[in-house]
Structures are given as C-alpha cells and as structure tokens.
Amino acid sequence: MPSPSQQTSFALGLDLGGTKVEAALVDEHGTVLTDSRFRLPTGPATTPAGLEAAVTSLVTRAVERLPEGASLVGAGIGSAGPVVAATGTVSPLNMAGVRDFPLRALVQSVLPDLPVRLRIDGLCITLAEHWVGAGRGVDNLMGMIVSTGVGGGLILGGRTIAGPSGNAGHIGHVEVAGFDDPCACGGRGCLEAVASGPKTVAWARSHGWTGHTGEELAAAHATGDPIAVRAVERSGRALGQAIASATNLLDLDVVAIGGGFSHVSPDLFENARAAIARRVVFDFATKVRLVPSALSGEGPLIGAAALIHRAALVAEPVF
Amino acid sequence: MPSPSQQTSFALGLDLGGTKVEAALVDEHGTVLTDSRFRLPTGPATTPAGLEAAVTSLVTRAVERLPEGASLVGAGIGSAGPVVAATGTVSPLNMAGVRDFPLRALVQSVLPDLPVRLRIDGLCITLAEHWVGAGRGVDNLMGMIVSTGVGGGLILGGRTIAGPSGNAGHIGHVEVAGFDDPCACGGRGCLEAVASGPKTVAWARSHGWTGHTGEELAAAHATGDPIAVRAVERSGRALGQAIASATNLLDLDVVAIGGGFSHVSPDLFENARAAIARRVVFDFATKVRLVPSALSGEGPLIGAAALIHRAALVAEPVF
Lengths: 319, 319
Known about the structure:
Chains A, B: Its EC number is 2.7.1.2. Chains A, B: This is Glucokinase. Chains A, B: InterPro entries: ATPase_NBD, ROK, ROK_cs. Chains A, B: Keywords: Kinase, Transferase. The structure is a homodimer of 319-residue chains. Chain A has 319 residues and is an alpha/beta fold. Chain A folds into 2 domains: 4-125 and 298-313, 2-Layer Sandwich (Nucleotidyltransferase, domain 5), CATH 3.30.420.40; 137-292, Nucleotidyltransferase, domain 5. In chain A, 37% of the residues lie in helices and 19% in strands. A 5-stranded mixed beta sheet of chain A has the order 3-2-1-4-7, sandwiched between helices. In chain A, strands 10-9-8-11-12 form a 5-stranded mixed beta sheet, sandwiched between helices. The first copy, chain A, has a two-stranded antiparallel sheet with strand order 5-6. Chain A is globular and about 55 Å long. The model of chain A has no long low-confidence stretch (mean pLDDT 95). Chains A and B meet through helix 8 and helix 10 of A and helix 8 and helix 10 of B.
C-alpha cells in the first residue's frame, strides 16, 4: 500500500513579479510544499540572460524537492503583464530590458514532458481566491491586488477570463469619474493612478503629510491624522467607483482584495463600499460584496499551480 | 420531397423596449419573416395587465404566420433591464408600474412545449452583431447601443456573458474620468450620463445651442456649428474612455456600436478612437476596433431569436 506522499500529485507554481521570481511545488489541495519554495530578486535592471538563469535554477531546485513516490503533473506560471498568452511570452512593465521573453518555453525546456500553462498574475491570484481564499466557490469573482500597482483577474460563470491576448483583468486601468490624475498607461484618472500605495502616499504628501511609505500612512491613519484619513477616503472611494463600473459591466458577486496597501486601514474597504452603495437604482450592482483576500504570501504560487490543478476552470483556449 | 419552407426552422424573437414591444419569426439564417412582425407601444404608463395583453397578442399573431410545414423551435426574449434571468422576470427602468413582471413565464404559457429563453436586450444585440452584423465570428466582442440610454452586451471567449442576475453588459454605467455628471443610477460620471443622445443635447443647450433633438444636433454638426462639434467631441471622448476601461478589463477585440445617436456624426467614432489611442502603453487595449453596427432595426428581434438558434454561444447556466 502506498504512503500518502506516494499518492500526492504536485504542480510546479512559478510567479514572476516586479521584485522577485519564485517557485514551489503545490499539492492538489492547494498546499505549498514549504521546503520546495525558492526565490530570487528581480527589478528594473533584470536582463533576459539573468532571468533565464534565475528561472532555470528555481524550477530545477523546486522540482528536486518532489517527495519520493509523488508525481509532478505540470507547471503553471503567473507573470506580471503584459503577456502574450498564446505564445507564452512576457514583457513585465517594470523590467524594461525584458520584452517578449519566452517564459513558458523556458519552463517547458526544463520540464519537457509536462503541460506548462501561463497567465497574468492577477488571474492566478483570482484562481487562488476561488480555490483556497476569500472567494471559494464564487463563480462571478474578481480578485484584486492593491499594492505598488493595482491589478486583478476575473472568473465569470465559473471560468477564468484570460482575453485573447491574455491580459484581461487590468482593473487598475479602469477609469474613475471625477478624477484626472495622469497614469503611466497614457490615460488619465485610471484607478491605479489614484489608489495604488505610492499614489496615495504622494497625494497625502502633496497635502502636507510628511511620511514616505504606505506603512507610515497606515500608522498615521490609525492615530487619526486628518490628511491620512482623507487620503484613505479618496483612494477607497476610487476603488469603490472602479468596482462599481466593473460590476455594472460584469454583474460580479464578490471582489476579493489583497496586496500590501489593502491593509492600510479597514476604512479603505468601508469607503469603497460607500461609493458602490451610491448606485442605488441597480440592485445587481450594489449586491457585490467586497472582502479582504484570504491568501497568504503563498497566494501567487498557489494560483499559478491552479492553472494545472484546477484546469477545468481555465477557459479555452488553453494556452 | 419537401419544399424549402418545409425544411425551415423558425424561432420566435420578442423584444421588449422602452417605447415598443415587438415580435417576429426568425429563421436559422437570421432572416426575419417580414409578415410575422408585429409591434405595440410601451412607455412609462404601461401596466402589467396591458403588457400581458400586448405580449400575448404579439406572440400569438407572429406564431400564426409560421409557414406551412416549417417548424417552430423555441422563443428568445430580449428585454430592457434590469432583469432577473434565473426567474425570467423583468423590471424595465422606464416602466415604473412594471416590476418583477414574469415575461418568460408569460411567453411560455403561450408556447408551452418549447424552450423559452430570456436575456437583456444588450446581450441580444451583441448576439445579433456576432451572427449577422459587424462582429461576425469575433469571439471577444462588445455590442453597444447609444440612444436614449447607453447599453450593451458581451461575448467573451466565444460565449455570452449574462452574469448571475442576467444584467452584465451595462456599459452605460461604467464611469468616465474627468466627468462628474449626475446619473439616474445614483452615481456620477457614468457614460450614459454624459454621452446618451438626450444628455449630449442637454449639454449643447446648456452651452447656448438652441435645438432640441439628436437629429437637429446631427444637422448642426454637419454645418460645422461649433457648439455641436464640441458636444459630439465630448460625448465621443467619453465613449472612448469607457470602452478603454472595458478593454483594459476584458481585452476586447471589437466593439460594435449602434443606436440612433451613434449616427450623429462619424466624428463620434473618431473622437472615441482618439481617446482609446491615448492608452499608448498597452497594445492589448489600443488594439480594440470600434465599428458601426451592421444591424438594421431588426437587430433586437434577430438577437432575441439567436438565444435559440445560436444556443451554443449562450453560456451556462441556460435560464
């Protein structure tokens, strides 16, 4: 009779983000095998050769930790966008030297006999929320990250929405009425340009607050600093407005919000909910529930692995 | 050997709008059987009893025109929203006396042995564009109507997106940055509050133009009237901004735009395209193509019938 570990199927999860690239084995219950988790730094200076070496090393080391008798069933990759899902290439915005990088082909070359699937990180986060997080079993769900940027992903009708290029889910570049802040995308008044951590801090500083970080802003808010309170009110309102737009368009049931800046204060959520509640005429829009993410820092890895373990939710075409 | 008419399958299409309710038989190629088309007026004074009588009459009269030997395979209903798709009930905004009206059950009672399906009108229009219109075969498509209001519908990954309540597609209540116009939904800066025909006319009048209708505004624009030009510029820009938001969220390929006010001037489209083109950093967003609807006034009926004839595109759950 086989031992439990011999019956376990693992998927490799790989997460490529703006500050780090990480890999780990994840079992079919969404549990990360702790001693298979490895990471290396990334950043604006990352080169294609450096990224290739890092990914090859991480994947190889993670896979070496596969328990004896357990099986490796595939690899899922979540990447900072933009991506081209059909070709498995990525061009992370903050790594100017990394363009059209063949990330899926690289992982495939290390694991030649297994399925390898790639999606943007926001979609993977949403899969993780649906699987083990705050949106378990919610089939009309948006996952969001509010951090240095604002990103997200969508599950509609029980299936992920990747979009033809693989870039669906960019809630950070949905506009918010009454705002006109210039955005790095070329537009104005995008949610990310208003409500990301750095943009909220910048607004507070431009109104006389003297701190520098989101953590300091959280501390100031906790003491009732009036500028910090106004800054969180403003960003929360923008967050709610963008979610209201998304819900009018998509009839969402739940939005699960994580990311470092989402913890600045519970008032961020309350202000967002108040903005949504203004849309009084449409029950289907005001019904949406905003909940804090229930994922740990392992969320991106679990979500990447879900591209394999939860393949039935991954809408066609399966890249 | 059967004659061609004996081989034909028809679906009944029923369209419930703010000014009229209409029914007709539609064949499997998306062609309306002209002499089966009947309509009756609706409006703010419509009562449930009046609507019940009108729908019963229209469905009965249309079905009586079924050619000898042809088969009737089902009925599709497009309705002004909000709707509750799961129960087949409708509460059209501008008919205050008609709430939770059991429209699907009513049609089912007239056609007891056939499948009867109900969706919001914007989704039906989008199915019609995908079938016989400007979005043929485009599997990531938004259909839009710019008229008294602004509505729409979505096909993503080749399947319609109805949403859990049936109200997905409300692009008119997506916000536009830099605008703050109060909206009937309770929000501010919604696309519909800026760019509908009546709102564009109202803006022009508030800036000194003296006409009263969208047709007059179109004529004034054609002669180069500076206020009319600015009014169309403003509404076109708002249209483009809302579409840019939708495309960032959904990675759309094509948006097909119809409705009376969409004909005000080709500049409406040009201004919308210019607003989208500002989002220079994201190729996946600027790739979206805006095209005029290729549907005639039969579009809503064809789209309603498509709920039956094109059932494979209608995402589960099939209400």
